[in-house]
What we know:
By secondary structure, the chain is an alpha+beta fold.
Amino acid sequence: MNSYPAELLVQLAPVMFVAGLGLPPAPPTPTPNIPQSPGQTQSPPPTPTKHDPFPSLIARLRDALQSQRKVAIWAPGRTRTFQIILVGRDVRFPPRKLVPPEDPAYASNHSPLSPLTPSSPLYPDGLIAPIWIRKHTALVPSVFVLFLRLFEPPPVHSRSPLDPPDLDHEREKAEEERRRDAELSAEVAARKKTTNERGIKLTVVLLASRRMLDDPSLDSRLTFIRRQSGLDSRAALFVLSPVSTSELNDFARSLQDALYEPALEYYTSHSKRVRRKRNRHSQAVSSYNLPLAPVGGASARPLRPEGWTVRYEYKMACFAEFRGEDEVALKHYQDAYATLMIMFGSTAILPPRTKRWAEAKVLADAIHVKISKLYLYNHEHSLALSHHNSHMRRFADFSRGWGIGEETFEYWSWMARQHRVLAELLEQGSNSSLTFPTNLPPSHTAGVSPAGTPVELDTVRALGLNPSHALQHPGHYYYMAARCTESRRERFLTSEGTSQGTSAAPGYVNEKKVDHLSLILELYTKSYEVFKKYSSTTSQGRLTFWIAYRIADTYYESEKFDVATQFFERIAKTYRKEKWNEMLRPLLSTWYACAQKLGDVELMVALLVEMIGYAHDADESRVLQEDLLAVLKSSVPTSIGEPYVIDLKGSKPLLDTRLVFWTPEVRVSEEAAFQLSLAAPTNIDLSAFPVASVIITFSDGYYPVVLRHSPSADDEVADKDVRLVKIGKVLEDEDEDEVPEEIEAYLRWRPGEKLVVSGSISSVAPRPLTVVSINVILAQSDWIIEMPHELGVSHEISTLVPRWLTSINPIRFLQLGRSDCSSVTVRHRPHELAVSFSHRAPALLDEEYPIVINVANVDERHLDVAVDVLLQPTEVDEASQYIVFDDQRSSGLIKGIRFGTIAPGLSATKTLYLVGCGAPGDRMMDVSIQSTSVQATPMTKDDDDDDDDNDDDDDDDDDDDAKHPRSPDSSSARAAVDVCEKLQTIIIPTSRALSATYDVVYRRSKDAMPALADLSPAEDDWDDSCGGLAIVSTRMACSSPCGLVIESLKLHRQGNSLAKVLDSSSDEGSDIFLDEYLSGDEFCDVSRVSISPQEKQVSAEERIPGPGEYEVVWRRVLPGGSRGRQTTTRFALPALVLPRDGLIALLDIPSTAKLHVPTQVQLTVRNRHLSRSANVTVTLDLEPPDAFIVAGLRNGRLPILLPGSEEKLSWNLIPIECGHVKIPRIKVMDVRHASPPSQDAGVRNMEVDVEGEVVNVVDVRAEWRTGSADSTGENSTQRDGVTTILVLP
Length: 1289
């Protein structure tokens, strides 16, 4: 931005003059007609006394005020701060017009900077000058703050309180204060007069001591000073005493807050004045009559209306910027810029290459910077970039019309300046608060809509983003400025070479003084630093290396070859790694030129060798080879006799290498055939390349294969595209004194020629075999150059396809079907083991299901065998399982079950047990049989037993494998352990052996319910009056597909506090169930369970755990009549759910009666409701009347039945008729006004009539109820109480 006046670019802020803070003495006063800088006239500071605190206060005040705001181009923050300038107390303002105000021509006169004033630098047609901005930023303030010292009389020595006051001294003190205050007021009034002429706000700050603040006369003195000096009543007079630095900073901020509004009013009044002038000139040409020009002089052309518009719009924009109104300033800047574009469009208004034309270009560029900056303040990145592109495009078009097109250095100088200004502006913004957009790609896949349908091509293009329309970080624009400066240098050098270059370009003399290369380096360096800063977030690291390459190229142009070489070396590493071949090729050429200038022969050789690999065609490779041979013949290496190694790792190789093994695997001591091809690329001619030998190094333990160049064979192989060299078997290096035999071959390649090296290799130990390195040795004069080549590196992808040469005449290749043929794996011969699993499916639940594993050794070697078994988790719900192998038990993995050493032809057998519980389903096991070849050692049976004992005692050492034959420590150092593993999966179906089903019925207890206040149940052991009795019938069926032998059946009591088993049919003896059962056979057991629940458990229908379980011991019946292992299956009694009761009547009748003998019938009415009482009536209906003679209640009401209580009634019946006779009907009614049955959860199937609700009458002789909560049906329930009795004679 140094190319433009700073006044046109800085951020404008209200200006405050501060006087009276003791600046150095001022130089002599200048003439009134010349503007005076505010810092030129200063008053000397007062002489401080020994203990005067005011010099320190003034110094701290200066620091506090000057630190409020710094002049800067980028300042987006809009705070109430001023640009504070320290001036002298006698500072003068520049004159508004050339004549004094008392002159009669003052009204018609103009400003000294007006184009209408002949002495103005803008006369007659200038637009705006930087001095006008300097006038309002450095010469004329909006607020003037004057610091003055308030007079304070010296303190009087203390007198006695009894002494009368000294009236003369007080009077003299008052007179002196009044005189000094009058002098101070006169000075303020004089300054007030000068500020009022300009509309500037004057504020006075009086410096006083703390003692003066407590003086009662201070208020009157301040009032006198204000009135005498004519100060305003608002924010015009302050008093400041010596305070701390923090308080001074607060004072500076409060002072600016108080004076900010008057400053805005000052700039607003200027804007209104300029707007009135603009309106006057907007429609008409200026009517100002220019003075007559001298005789013979050229006539002066006045400023056109467009120029006046630019001038006034720019002034209003500046005043709006002073006020902090960015939107208003942007509007006026845009209007000024648009009018300027109109003026530039006409050469009649602004003739090219004139002074006014150059001033207007500078003004247009400055306004462009202002507009872009204001856009960026508002985070409108696209608008700022759009305006920047539009500005450059417009002036590029203008420049072509002015004769300053792309072929001139002036054009590229201006273009570079615009890019640099934008870069510097963005860089300043990024150091403050400016952020750049991320410019992420669109989320939708190109070519496909979100619905999956194809998208039109125009739509796909619309998804992208033009890079020139996206604001990027400053590094990009620094880079563009550097590129434009390179074009500027090229155009300058072109014009310099022409014969008329000096006179053709007007700025040629100034351009000769420019150091273009230093300028390019500066711009590239700045771009590189910014790109490095943003490379982690914008993924532009590769472009950073490109800029570094441009820096290195510029250093080369500057003849700083050593620095350029350092850059090339670092950049080439990345280009090689990332395969940027097209960018690496010119880099190597320039690097080679630097090496030539530096005289570094070894670097020249290395670069020439690498450049041959990147040659475009055979002709270029031949030229590079000639250069290499010339360098080798004309120079000597640094270390004669020692090979100079050129590392081509990452670069394109000179030879394409490909290793192919015929098979991927071979056995120990078996030969593996291989072919190694060394081919020249089709674009490289290596027929003159001085290759002396090729050294092929295999894996450790083998002699390298040396191919020596044999010129005698040139005639035989000159015309062959493929040459075959057979090397036989690669020898192992067992004899270190033996020297490998060198093989002669023709080591010259024309484009596309291939040399195939065929041989074989074997190993006595398992290992991978491959070619480790291929070294190409060059020999010329005193040079020995070694070039390592990587295996499998090629120029073309097609050459990487593995192919096997099958015929040399004619040439035929066989393409192998493997992806990786560059290595072969040597393995031991697989062990010959016959593994079988014997078992009888299916397995039964709870059974230890035997699986016999038989391992037979059909190999010729002694094999040590161990077995691992993994039981896979089952997906069946509620299923569990585990396996038992030897003395180990696990639900997952059992590892290292030793079968011992099995000699050839023998076998070993062990049994694995699988136990499945819970639910039937398939069980899956993975069995790993691991065998290790061991040496045959005689072993007795005692030794075998000892080994077994040791295995049992040392279970913790199984994982260590220190003494195991398969451990690497027990084998030799050269041979690997001969281990083989065989995997098999077994799926065992599992089914149930027995299945059990339960039928449960419930009976109410006949026992009397305890009274409500009776505590006897708490003392008794058991009370089932609330629960009753449950009859559980258990039916067991044989579900196994094979037969089962039941050995025992027992019911184990597991009593709890809620239920207990009273008796069971199995208690009579388990022998009744001993038998053999086939699939589908069933047997049954019945048990009685007494239930004693709590009331809340009955009401909530909670499940009561079964009080016992059945234990069934059985065996599987095997084919042939034998029996399997004993197995135990358990069935738990079902959970009990007692049905709910409400109001119920229980009728107890004997089953038989005798004729004419009284028989007692008892009725128990129980209220089992939780909270409701019952009002019960009982009616006895003698129908038929001739069957019985009844003694008892015929019709009556029972006492109110509270919840949990019962009442009993009894009748004596005398039968008078034999046979099955119906007893009298007993009808029980609940006459309480109750809710309908649908709202009563405790009573079901009730009928409602006019007399009340009918209560169920249950015959307890044959009562049973199911356990379902929804079932209350009674097999002996009668609503009218009718039942029968057998009367015997």
